[in-house]
Structures are given as C-alpha cells and as structure tokens.
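Why does residue order matter? Because the sequence determines the fold. Keep that principle in mind as you read this record.
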Amino acid sequence: MAQLMETAYIGKLGALELASAGIGVAIFNILSKIFNIPLLSIATSFVAEDISKNASKHSTSGKLELPSVSSALVLAAAIGTIEALALFLGSGLFLKLMGVSPVSPMYTSARLFLSLRALGAPANVIMLAVQGIFRGFKDTKTPVLFIGLGNLSAVVLLPLLIYGFKLGITGAAISTVASQYIIAILLMWSLSKRAVLLPPKMDQLEFGGYLKSGGMLLGRTLSILLTMTIGTSMAARQGPTAMAAHQICLQVWLAVSLLADALAVSAQALIASSYAILDYKRVQKVAMFALQIGLASGLALAVGLYISFGSIAKLFTNDPQVLAVVSSCALFVCASQPVNALAFIFDGLHYGVSDFDYVAQATIVVGVISSLVLLYAPRVFGLAGVWAGLTTLMGLRMAAGILRLLWKSGPWSFLHEEPAETKAGPGVFESNITVAGAALCIIRIRGEPAHVRS
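Structure:
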C-alpha cells in the first residue's frame, strides 16, 4: 500500500516523472531483493526451527537466546551497507543497463531519485530481516503494527514534500527513506524486548546455514530479478508512456500478489515448526488449507481487479495515453492472480520443509524460459508481450511447485508412504490438495508413515 501511495502521488506530477521514478524503484527493488528475499525466507524457517528444538532463555534477562536471530541481524546490517554503496555509487551504470541513457529525458531525475533511495537500503534490509524473525515466532501482528505506524509518516511526508515544498520525486524518495528508518527502529526495539539481539561472543553466531541455504536462494532470486529486469527494460525501451503504464500495472500486480504471499508466510512458519518435530499430519493439513484458500483468494482477486481496474488506474494518472496503454495490459494483471497465489504458496510450503535447493534449481530453469519469452514477445506484441512473459514466469513457478509434491523422494516423501498397520489398528488420514485449473492432486495416507512410527 505504501508503494501504491507513492506511485499515485508521483503519477499526478506527469508521465515523465512517473516513468523516471518507476525506473528508480525497479532498480532499487532488483538490487535489494537479491539478498533481502533469501535472508527473509531463511530467517523465518530457521527461527521457527530454532524455537521448536533449541529455545533457551538468558539467565539474567529472561529473553530468548537464539543464534538464528543474532546471525540474521548481523547479516542484514552488512548486506544493507553493501547495497547502499552499490546503489549510490553505481546509479548511472544501473540506469544504462536498464536502457536509460544519459540523453534520455528520464535519466537525470531517475538518477537523483535512485541515489536518494539508496540511503534507505540498510533500514530496508534490517526491516525485512526482523520481519522474518517475527514470522519465525509466528507473530505477524507486531510487524503489521509497526510497519503501519512507520508508513503513517509517509502519509504525511509524501504530499508535504512533493507538493508543499515542491520537491517532486525527490520529496517522494526522502519520504520513503524516512519511513523505512522509522519502521526499522520500531521493529528492533520490539524484538529487543523478547530476544537477545547479539550474543556476548561473536563466535556464537551461526552463519553456516544462512550461507549454504542463502547461496541456493540467491540463484533463485537472481533468476527472478533478471527476468523482471528484462521485462522492465523492454518496457522502458518503448518510451515514457509505455513505461509509465507498465509501472502502474506492475505496482498493482505486485501489491495484490503480496496478499497471497501473506498466506505463504503463514504456511511456511507453521510447516517449519511441525516439520522440525516430525508432525507430518499437521504439515499436510496446513498445506491442504493453504492451497485451497490460496486458489479461492486468487480467483476473488482476479474478479475484483477485473471489475475495478479502470478506476484503480485513474488513481495514478489522468493521462489518457497512459490509461489507454494500461487498459491493454489489464487482462494479464487480472487473469494471472490465481496463478500468482498458488505460485507464492508453493514456495512457502517448500521453504517450510527447508527444500531450498529444489526451489532454487526449479526457479532458475523457469527464469531462463521466461526470459526468452520476454526478449522476443515485446518486439511483436509491445507491452502486452512483456506481460505475457511475466505471466509465463508465474505459471511455470506454479507448475514446478505442483511437480515437487508429486515426487516420491525428497522432503514430501511422507505423502506417498505405503499404508501400514499400527497396534491400534489401521488409521486413515486423507486430504485433498486443490491446485489451479485441471491440476488436482489427491493424497491419501493410511496410518502413520514408517519413519514416524520408528
């Protein structure tokens, strides 16, 4: 919602300003997510597992001592500093890579916007890492509260700096950075009341698991971001009007998709806790419910967007040319919502069982295929070709998630155990996992899996 609000305020300044800020936001998101998303996902699983198996309290403070928490915070601080330097010093280079040359009318304002946004990178990484930690605690209320309070500052600062002080997109960048630091400080303060932030000795930190799993997810994130970058680059090459329309569609697409990602986060934390203590029945129940509610939510979002997309687009711009281009891509944004929902939820299920290697390898393959579509389709179909490529990306991610559940080896092998008798007689545990379209995976498990009984 904060990004949508920022886009709406900037959109009122004109198509050129919206396109310039869109390029800057895209570059910031691309570079920050390379490391941020792996850290966020891994922290959620590691903290949940740590609490289930190794939770202990500090002898004097009574706070939880969890190596996974301290390790995540140290990594976040280091990664945030590196990202800030890279974005600030390399803003010109990144713009050129996105197809925005120094002679482009977008170049000067986009470079200034990106340089200012770079200052918020450390706070942004720490904010995401702490969110992952709270998710591991199965506490999603605290992050929502403090993120909401932090974004209230943006509600005040955005119109004040953009219009009151007439700073334009520079004021938008300053407002966003300020809100990021407010959120990070509030989250750290809240976390410090329930967990030890740093151990007495630095050798107690455990980076091995983060670096191993993070290395695999880094490849996954790079694959997705490369695909998204190609899409943004192809849109930017078609001019400010097409780029402004793409920015509107992309922000709505991402914002709505994050509603499904919330379901994936919940499933990940619940599955990680249950999987760590071998409670496979609960793992299966959570997976079934998450997929069913994800499909229902995706369909509801698709219908809602289809009905209201024209009105939503007018919140961002009044330019008739931009609105005309937006309408040509609206069908992709709406129709892809059920696919997006299931793709995110499958990622959450696989993260919950720490199946990071498969997710990374499958996504790399998916990214290569989708990138090929993005390189060629826009040359024939224009901006609609960009959205065909992005829809391909999410569809293949969903297909990869379904495929993993059907494998008889790996972390989901308990779904395919042969029926077995127990002392109390045969038991029956059935669940139906519903996926998109014609894909219906019916899993039947009778009795307890052999490795659980042993």
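Residues 27 and 87 are 8 Å apart (CA to CA).
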